[in-house]
Design goal:
This protein is an alpha+beta fold and 467 residues long. The protein has 20 helices and 16 strands. The strands form six sheets. The chain has a five-stranded mixed β-sheet, sandwiched between helices. A three-stranded antiparallel β-sheet has the order 9-6-10, with helices on both faces. It has a two-stranded antiparallel ribbon with strand order 5-14. It starts with a helix and ends with a strand. 49% of the residues are buried.
Length: 467
């Protein structure tokens, strides 16, 4: 009798705790479900967590998971802290000062492939698709415009090829000035995107080597690192003449009247992966339930962000100083389905920021292999690698098994439909959705590398040469 009374008291307390959280679906209010939920939370090995991020709109899943209570509903108590730059993010995750972080997709891959600081890092969650742009100064744009086609409405026809930039680069060279542009980190999507855009127009963006890690060997455009929030000020100061960065820093240039975005990465590689969430391999092995719980909360955040009607609230949250801290009007320019090029030339761009659609949260091996091909193309991976190395290496870093476990639990709990989970072996189908229409098949990385005119090429014997 006493056991029955005790069990009833436990169930009432658990139900009371659940009601005070106010987050689960009504169908889970049954006492048995609540007890089960509380017991599952007790298996979270590390409930107190600190995550890092850089002040960009694509950190949104972290902000939403915290502000909408998704972390807390998984039994997690999370602090989200802005970091000064991408190197600091990487170092603090590796050193254990951060339990995980918003990161450039290339960072965990480079760490595993041996470029820069080496470590065993894991990506269980892809944070978004697209979201970047290439902006040039007003002076550069005024010189490019003569080489840009216009439509019947008198506005530039997009996408704009870097061929329109080539005469400007040549004029600077004739004046004895190097043409300088910024990107956010050597292994950032931005570095590879601006290189891809330039090289597709026959402009050499420079090579890396073991001895020269600046990436400026034979460069017609000198690319250098500038932290994202500093991009507009650096452009305005004339230190650089253009840059590739995520939002809100392209729209900030428009807002301040100091520059013009000329292309978005949606037109360089349609629906390309951008940021990822990263933890160390040691962390996910030591705290596997915690890693799954974090991934569950982030998947829910991604879905919330892509649910129609939620973006205005997301903009309000991101504008808070503890997150991105930019003006709502600047954030809304891209986050609410539009993008502004020249001042007043605002265009519909519903897929500029994607957080859930097109299986955006799933860490596809093929996405990661693309970064490896670009690291090899530009010399960050200095030696030839066989095709199977690319497949094996990315499977050490990208962990769709963690994502799948988290997503299946969300299906059981009623937050996702089974149809929302991708049916995949981890690879997307081959695609030509690039500005140069090159065909990318992740299962043939060597063929892809060899398809480019500029950059490292692999010979059949495995001996590399540069063109």
């Amino acid at each position: 009798m006493m056991k029955k009374v005790y069990l009833k008291i436990v169930m009432i307390i658990a139900a009371s705790m659940f009601m005070s959280c106010g987050g689960k679906k009504k169908k889970e209010i049954a006492s048995g479900a609540v007890v089960k939920e509380e017991l599952s939370k007790s298996h979270i090995e590390k409930p107190q967590l600190t995550f890092g991020f850089i002040k960009l709109t694509d950190m949104a899943p972290l902000a939403i998971a915290k502000e909408k209570g998704f972390f807390e509903e998984e039994g997690l108590f999370v602090s989200v802290e802005a970091q000064s730059n991408w190197k600091n993010v990487l170092d603090r995750v590796i050193d254990g000062q951060l339990d995980g972080s918003h990161m450039l997709a290339g960072q965990p891959i480079a760490a595993g492939a041996g470029f820069g600081r080496q470590a065993e890092l894991v990506t269980p969650f892809s944070m978004d698709l697209n979201g970047n742009g290439i902006t040039v100064s007003n002076d550069v744009w005024s010189k490019m415009k003569a080489h840009v086609s216009v439509g019947e409405n008198g506005k530039p026809i997009h996408p704009i090829s870097a061929k329109a930039l080539k005469p400007v680069i040549d004029s600077y060279k004739n004046e004895g000035k190097a043409f300088k542009m910024g990107m956010v980190f050597p292994v950032s999507t931005h570095n590879y995107e601006i290189r891809y855009w330039l090289a597709a127009a026959g402009i050499h963006p420079g090579m890396y080597s073991k001895e020269n890690i600046q990436g400026q060997i034979d460069a017609e455009v000198l690319l250098s690192v500038t932290p994202p929030p500093q991009m507009p000020a650096t452009l305005e100061a004339g230190t650089i003449y253009g840059y590739c960065v995520g939002e809100p820093w392209n729209q900030q240039a428009v807002f301040k009247g100091i520059g013009v975005p000329v292309i978005t990465n949606y037109d360089i590689w349609k629906n390309n992966p951008e940021k990822v969430f990263v933890m160390t391999k040691k962390f996910i092995e030591k705290y596997p339930n915690t890693a799954v719980a974090v991934t569950k909360a982030l998947i829910r955040a991604g879905k919330w962000l892509d649910t129609p009607g939620n973006r205005k609230e997301a903009v309000k949250i991101l504008s808070m100083p503890e997150y991105v801290g930019a003006d709502e009007v600047v954030l809304a320019n891209s986050m609410t389905g539009t993008f502004e090029f020249e001042k007043g030339d605002k265009r519909e761009m519903p897929d500029f920021n994607v957080f859930y659609r097109y299986h955006a949260t799933y860490p596809f091996y093929s996405d990661g292999i693309w970064f490896l091909t670009q690291m090899r193309r530009w010399g960050q991976i200095p030696e030839s690698k066989p095709a199977d190395w690319y497949q094996a290496k990315i499977k050490e870093i990208y962990r769709p098994d963690i994502w799948t476990k988290a997503a299946k639990l969300l299906v059981e709990e009623g937050y996702l439909e089974a149809s929302e989970l991708p049916e995949t072996d981890g690879y997307k189908a081959a695609t030509t959705d690039f500005i140069d229409r090159k065909r990318y098949d992740a299962k043939d990385p060597i063929g892809y590398i060899n398809s480019f005119n500029i950059g490292n090429k692999e010979s059949i014997e495995g001996v590399s040469n540069v063109q």
